[in-house]
Write a structure and sequence with these properties.
The chain has about 160 residues and is mainly alpha-helical. It contains 6 helices and 3 strands. It has a 3-stranded antiparallel β-sheet with strand order 1-2-3.
């Protein structure tokens, strides 16, 4: 049941079996209802924080995925695609050493899950999945914290 309610996770980057995000309870539902009136402001704040992150992209060795123009994005994540997995891992380790915990979403690639038997390798998804890192993004994050996060990223990539 623990795997089923937690996406099948068996660790931060391992999956044991199929799972869902089934952790909601009545308390979670009540909290969601209470906070519904703040959702527009939370999304606006997260957009502003994402825009602040974007200021650093011209010096970043990688790209930020583009959201299609017709999509009304909710700013749930701030994903970056690094030029190499080696750089991603070095950045992740250094951020973790500074008590900053980004997340490798979309990793591992689906064909690498132990319960999936792909017909063939998916080279693009395999490559991209190894290079995606989502930086912290929440409505109480400060621009000073974003500046520090990117200073660390730039220091790692430039050294």
């Amino acid at each position: 049941m623990a795997y089923l309610r937690n996406f099948g996770h068996d660790g931060p980057e391992r999956f044991a079996e199929l799972g869902i995000n089934g952790k909601n309870s009545e308390l979670h539902a009540a909290m969601g209802l209470v906070n519904l009136k703040y959702v527009d402001q939370i999304i606006a704040t997260r957009k502003d924080l994402s825009d602040h992150y974007d200021r650093f992209l011209k010096t970043f060795q990688g790209v930020k995925p583009k959201i299609a123009d017709h999509i009304e994005y909710n700013y749930a994540y701030y994903p970056l695609i690094f030029n190499s997995e080696k750089l991603l891992l070095a950045v992740q380790e250094t951020l973790n050493q500074n008590w900053i915990h980004p997340r490798r979403y979309f990793f591992p690639s689906l064909e690498d899950l132990p319960y999936v038997h792909p017909r063939s390798r998916r080279k693009v998804s395999d490559d991209i999945s190894k290079r995606v890192l989502c930086l912290p993004l929440f409505d109480t994050l400060t621009v000073e914290e974003i500046d520090m996060i990117f200073r660390i990223i730039l220091r790692v990539q430039n050294n």
